[in-house]
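Model: Ready when you are.
Researcher: Fold this.
Model:
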Amino acid sequence: MRFVFSALLLLFIIPPAHGALAPGPDPTADPVRAAADLARHPASVNATPDINGHGACVSTAGNVWIKTTNFGFFGNPFSGNSADPSGQWPGPSGVQYMGSWIMWLAAKNPEALDINNLRRVSGSGFEWFPPSLAPEDRIYSAFEGQANGARDVDDDLDGLIDEEFLNGKDEDGDGKIDEDFAAISQQMCTLEVRDDTEQAINLVSTEKHVPFGILVRETTFAYAVPGVNDFVGKQYDIFNQSGHELDSVFVGFLVDPDIGPISVDQYFSDDLADPRVPQGNYVETVPTNDPRYNAALCTEDTIHVNGFTYTDDDGDLGKTTGAGSFLLLNHTTDPTGIKAPRRVGFRMYRTYAPGTPFQQGGLPIIDLERYQVLSATFGIDPVTGFIDEERSDPVTKTDFRSICSIGPFLDWQNGDKIEVEVALAVQLCDYSRPADGPNGPNPDRYAAVIRNAIETQKTFRGGPVVPRSGESTPDMIGRETGLTAPPGGNYNLADCREPEGSEGRQVRDEGVTWFDLDCNYCTGTVGLVQRRWLAAAPPPSPQARYTPGDQEVLLEWDNRSEYAPDPASALLDVKAYRVWKASNFTRPVGTSGPGDELWSLLAEFEIFDEFRPLVDSVDTNEDGMRDAMAKVFPVLLNVQSQERIYPADVPPLMDPATGDTIITIGDRPYRDEHGVPQIAHGVRIPHYPIGRYRYADHNVLNGFVYFYSVTAKDSSGQRDVNGGRGTLAEQEGRRAATEGDGVVPQSSQGTTAGQVYVVPNPYRGTAQWDLSPNATDPTGTHVDFYNMPAGQWTLRIFTVAGDLVQTLRWDDLMVNGKPQRETQTDGQATWNLISRNGQDVTSGIYMFSVESDLGTSQGKFVLIR
């Protein structure tokens, strides 16, 4: 089901008159539609969740594009408020593989005074909100290698490592904010939500929300490297801040897939559920030359996968080529089974069809029913722990949803944390093959889906790295789990590496005892520790700014690609910047940005070093070379044109006699003969702001929308050894832009009155710059007024009869959220052909008048609709 919450703007912008609470709606069999109804009946206090317009976190580093909100929803079910993608693959294709999911937390509250509040669920409606209305309670973005975000490094030199969570707050009380956190993946987003905010409590419905006092920290991960770029990971760190114990806790997810091209009406109505894939224990042969593993013992690696998949019924005539999978990667476990499940796996799973009452197997609609569902054990094989529900009948294709849960977590004390990692993975599904094979799911149909799930699980599992100072490491190969008993709670625990009949290894309250609980020699390495969410990566793309001018766009970017080490090799391996441009974007229905076919390479700049001689340096040994170099700094060399781009703060040094540039150009000296960088992790490279490098694109037209993306590529990928010689693989970040990133060149400002004119004139039904209409731009077209004056101006548009049609001012916001004056020299005003009464105007002759300090300019133009 695609949720259309057109009234949500009222919830977050317009409070009810006199602060009165509007009457709440009756819940229906659909709890998410009930939440939508709640949005239409706002409380007196409004929070500011990030759901409107272009969001602060839209994962675009890989092939799966999805929006993260700080409102409990992962995805964008608010299509009436935002055009951001929701599980689109590949990239901005307009084909969706996840409508949204929302996390539920169910618990038994032994402190409850009312028996009706004993078992409650948070998250089932609009019950997760930012902790406060303070500006720091927002969504944050980061990338692997960001300043203050080096993983396993004491960034602030206080003796602690990665002690901060990226949330704009001082976690450790040292007076600094976000000074030492762990930045993971090429695109990481973080946020906090709570269930006990005033906004959550005051949202009125038939069943009042009763909070526990839970803080949830969410982190979203996206990767750019081929092989690990077809999923987006999500980590939930759930903290009990109720002030007391909570018992019999379950974490659940309501998953609404909504698969198909969103340009097609009712695209979500023909979904099919196949909970049989991808799940199982998959065995892989380990390469004998992988130095991270003991080749004698680690010959086969077993990857444990939990998940379920949704497909379209027939692939929508080739438009829907993939399948979307919800993957459970990990959660808090307890090897003893006393406080948490012994192994990672689902507690329950069920597929739900719309319109079915709860008593007949439909969705739960109140907390008591939700708790009953989340704590149940149906849909799971008690022996294997995998989902045993069958694939949905193709005859009953519909708008399915799923609920799954994990747990129980017992005796959850105040201050304790439950950790859950999940992912949305999307890959090709061979719709030409049947879903069933002779022994279950057809492996030929789901081969890419399963392979993608395995790679996702392996990326989460990570790999062995050098431990931090003082960090305990396994004492035997295969032992991946280090345990310490609570004070006075020493106990014995069985281990796969102990002799048969052994009583197990003793877990003590002092020190760490290591165990092999997964019976896998490949997940524990002596002297190294396993680090999660670890994958090779291209350099992060630089932060960039694209400024429109008069028939030009100025591109500026920083040097963050140069100072961010590769997370796997810990080397500074950037080799070049690539500048990409997308034009001819028409905003096809459902797309959220330019597709891959629209991007073209504008320029590639290899990074070289310039060596500048000292002015007063002498050639002591008379070998024709001066004794020292005054400065070494990077310069970009355009591979195509040989044009050089100098850093903005270091202009080229000129020979006063000849006017020639005094430089010596050479490849960076820290690279070997294969181009592999030799600087190890820890070397500091200065961080320069946006504007370090600049490049102007003059091949543009005023009034048209363009997109740009500056990526970086490295030269330290895997080598294919052939005859003793290595072939270097280069890795590049993904070119990407959403509609909100588009820039429109603007004409320069007029210097005298009477110069304003309209383009196109006449307007004949369409213009070359037209886009397909969407929720925030109902016409998709515009006429522009050129040579608008500097300073403040007011533009009025009239019919020939003298009726006022529309008034535009220099400081107005346009329908796409951008200002009329985008830059200080912007001399162009845009009108979307909507009258001041919100109506699409008709054909006719129109007059205009522009009033400013320069005087008054008047004119006319023609619209032919």
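Researcher: Now this one.
Model:
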Amino acid sequence: MNTEISSAVPWWSRRPHFLLAGHLLLLHALAFGGWRLPAVRILWFVAFGLFLLWQPFVAGERRMSRRQGAVVLAAALASTWLLSPWLMLIWCGALAAVIGGRVLWTGDRLERAGYLFAFGYLVCLTIFGIVPEISPSAVLDPLPRDAIARYMPFLLAALIAFPAHPQRRRAGDAFDLFYGMLVFLALAVFVLGALAVTFVSGVSYVEALAQTSLAIAAALLVLAWAWNPRGGFSGLGSALSRYLLSVGLPLEQWLIQLAETSERESHPVRFLAAITEQLQRVPWVVGCRWQAGSESGRFGGTSPHTQEYRRDGVLLAVCFRHVPSPAMRWHVEWLLRLATEFYLVKFQTHELQRMSYLQAVYETGARVTHDVKNLLQSLQTLCYAAAQPGDPEAVARLLARQLPQIAERLKSTLDKLQRPRADDNRNTSAAEWWARLRDRHSGDAIEWNDPAGEAEVPSALFDSIAENLLQNALTKRQHEGGIEISVKLTVDRNSPMLTVRDTGQAIAASVADSLFRTPVQSAHGLGIGLYHAARQADETGYRLDLAENRPGSVVFTLAPRT
């Protein structure tokens, strides 16, 4: 043997080919006339026991209960009493199916050859020994049947020489039922076909065997070609696989139903309810139920045969009309998995839409809050100027110029609350906008570098960013002192660029790296002004940059994006 087995394992488990050879030897003695003799008929009882030890379904060393033992003993005695060529013919067909079903699960090439040799011996035993016992017309002349009966058992010595592994009796490893049924049917067609050719054509039994063999070989050759053709189209194997996997509900149809329902229902819960209702059209389903979070639903009836699929808070359950097979359970699990995937995608899309809306509300609120803060600072500056002693007419003129601009900016800010995504992109003359900006900050000691040339600027964008940059610079001046602030509007090829510069301390490197990408920590504000200013500029086609950042020169620029 080619594997080391513990001595505690029974010898018949270590040498299963010995058991098979002994069973075939006893069948040989019974097939060639021995079934007529009572003294030889009793060998069937021994052959039945050897088969029970060899069979690949239940472990041979397993203990049986008294009831099981009584059933096996009764079956052995009844088959011994009723033993006949017809019973042996059926038994040989079943044994051939078991041997054929074992071939596919054998990895060793020599061991597979041993099973094929045993299968060939069993076929020869059937056509040379059992069939002539059934039909008197099945005469082997010119083949010597007595010589075959006498010398054919010596071939079983070759079966003992083949290697064999201990039987694996795990579920799925012992026997291929589908392949075994095909072997049984092929052997039945071969035997019955040979008898039919003998009776119909009037030829000898040996000639009928030859003709039937050639006909079956040709049919198997055509079937093998049709099963997996090489002409670029799928064969019977592909069609059978699709049928077995569909189980009454083809996967393509289910995908079409999923796609159509997904297009009809955008809400994830309504989609899940609609798609589970589609399962009621399947004949082997009596009802189904679903649950997604706090939502749930049920369609049809209930049954004790239920299959459930759970994932990420989603439960889908299908109630079967009858007990489902493992293949059907596997298929239904994939159907439920696909439906759940579609639901989760829709749920995530719904959540993204909700988060997008909340983000729009948040960004609009943050931007409006920052604009209101800038307007409040402008009002505080006006109030401070009005409280100072001086010419009342000059104060009145200042208020007359500033209050309408503040009112217009406040109205534009409030409009953003009603239209979160609709910014004011109206363009204004650069000279006019520049004049209004200088007028609003006429008392803030800022150096103004007037623009040269004509251009138009988006007034809402330039107002918001200019006020933001100037208020930051003025707040910086209050805390550091002695800072000079300069503002410049450059018009180059009809492309305006705003530059705000201060001579204060440089911005910390950790803050400068994320200045325009995320909100930052601020000791004197909300820390979101430049973040929202940069996003507003990007949405309008401009770019806000920190052009220079060193002690004595901190420069921000707003220019069209190239």
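Researcher: Key takeaway?
Model: The domain at 428-562 is CATH 3.30.565.10 (Heat Shock Protein 90).
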